[in-house]
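Pilot study result, target chain (54 residues):
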Amino acid sequence: MLETRLTESGTETLRRADERAVRVERRIADALTPDERDTLRDLLARCVTAIRAD
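Predicted structure:
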Protein backbone atom coordinates (compact mmCIF):
# COMPACT_ATOMS: atom_id res chain seq x y z
CA MET A 1 0.00 0.00 0.00
CA LEU A 2 1.26 3.47 -0.87
CA GLU A 3 -0.16 6.37 1.09
CA THR A 4 -0.30 9.74 -0.62
CA ARG A 5 -1.32 13.15 0.66
CA LEU A 6 -1.96 16.49 -0.93
CA THR A 7 0.19 19.45 -0.09
CA GLU A 8 -1.47 22.62 1.22
CA SER A 9 -1.26 24.01 -2.30
CA GLY A 10 -2.79 20.83 -3.72
CA THR A 11 -5.60 20.92 -1.17
CA GLU A 12 -6.36 24.55 -2.07
CA THR A 13 -6.27 23.76 -5.78
CA LEU A 14 -8.67 20.85 -5.26
CA ARG A 15 -11.03 23.06 -3.22
CA ARG A 16 -11.11 25.74 -5.94
CA ALA A 17 -11.64 23.15 -8.67
CA ASP A 18 -14.52 21.61 -6.71
CA GLU A 19 -16.17 25.02 -6.29
CA ARG A 20 -15.90 25.63 -10.03
CA ALA A 21 -17.30 22.20 -10.84
CA VAL A 22 -20.30 22.84 -8.58
CA ARG A 23 -20.98 26.15 -10.36
CA VAL A 24 -20.80 24.45 -13.77
CA GLU A 25 -23.10 21.62 -12.63
CA ARG A 26 -25.65 24.15 -11.34
CA ARG A 27 -25.60 26.12 -14.60
CA ILE A 28 -26.16 22.94 -16.58
CA ALA A 29 -28.98 21.81 -14.30
CA ASP A 30 -30.62 25.24 -14.48
CA ALA A 31 -30.53 25.14 -18.29
CA LEU A 32 -32.47 21.86 -18.43
CA THR A 33 -36.02 20.97 -17.52
CA PRO A 34 -36.55 18.23 -14.96
CA ASP A 35 -37.45 15.80 -17.78
CA GLU A 36 -34.32 16.75 -19.70
CA ARG A 37 -32.19 16.19 -16.59
CA ASP A 38 -33.75 12.74 -16.19
CA THR A 39 -33.06 11.95 -19.86
CA LEU A 40 -29.46 13.16 -19.56
CA ARG A 41 -28.94 11.06 -16.42
CA ASP A 42 -30.32 7.98 -18.21
CA LEU A 43 -28.16 8.56 -21.27
CA LEU A 44 -25.03 9.06 -19.18
CA ALA A 45 -25.78 5.86 -17.27
CA ARG A 46 -26.01 4.02 -20.59
CA CYS A 47 -22.65 5.51 -21.61
CA VAL A 48 -21.07 4.28 -18.38
CA THR A 49 -22.52 0.81 -18.95
CA ALA A 50 -21.15 0.76 -22.50
CA ILE A 51 -17.70 1.87 -21.34
CA ARG A 52 -17.57 -0.74 -18.60
CA ALA A 53 -18.56 -3.51 -21.04
CA ASP A 54 -14.93 -3.91 -22.13
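One observation from the pilot: The CA atoms of residues 2 and 10 lie 18 Å apart. A full batch analysis is planned for the follow-on phase.
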